[in-house]
Amino acid sequence: MHIKPDSLFAALAHPLRLRAMQLLASEHELCVCELTHALAVAQPTISRHLALLREAGLVQDRRQGLWIYYRLNTQLPGWAQDAIRVVAAGIADDEPYARDRAELATMPNRPGARCCA
């Protein structure tokens, strides 16, 4: 897979997409319902931003029943994966990123047995 640096950083330039990518980098895979809960946004809003990240090649999705899960694209070049992980680690303790992770941790009925029940 090939991705241009300007495409990577343009996709991460929107605050909501950066917040979602930080969560995905730290959690590895999240359901849309987890992202809507953690980021406190409506499902259509996060879905639109996830679609842009998918079109840019930064994330992959998979369907499990009614739910769609997202993760960082494993086919990204090493430099792009490293850049995302370094940025995610560097901002992890800053706001709103730390708050997003804390909010995610409070979500009842997180995936495992059932999602979004």
- What's the CATH topology label? Arc Repressor Mutant, subunit A
Beta-strand content: 5-15%
Report how far the terminal alpha carbons are from each other. Answer: 36 Å
User: What is the number of domains?
Assistant: 1
Please give the number of β-strands. Answer: 3
- The residue fraction in helices comes out at 55-70%
Q: By helix and strand content, what is the structural category?
A: mainly alpha
CATH top level assignment: Mainly Alpha
How many helices does DSSP assign?
Answer: 6
If classified by CATH, what would the architecture be?
Orthogonal Bundle
**Weakly predicted, low-confidence segments:** none
Q: Reading side by side through the largest sheet, how are the strands ordered?
A: 1-3-2
Helix and strand run: HHEHHEEHH
CATH superfamily label: Winged helix-like DNA-binding domain superfamily/Winged helix DNA-binding domain
Q: What is Rg?
A: 13 Å
**Mean model confidence by pLDDT:** 92
Task: Give a short account of the largest sheet.
Answer: 3 strands, antiparallel
Shape call: globular
Notable features of this structure?
56% helix; 117 residues; 6 helices; Arc Repressor Mutant, subunit A; three-stranded antiparallel β-sheet; 12% strand
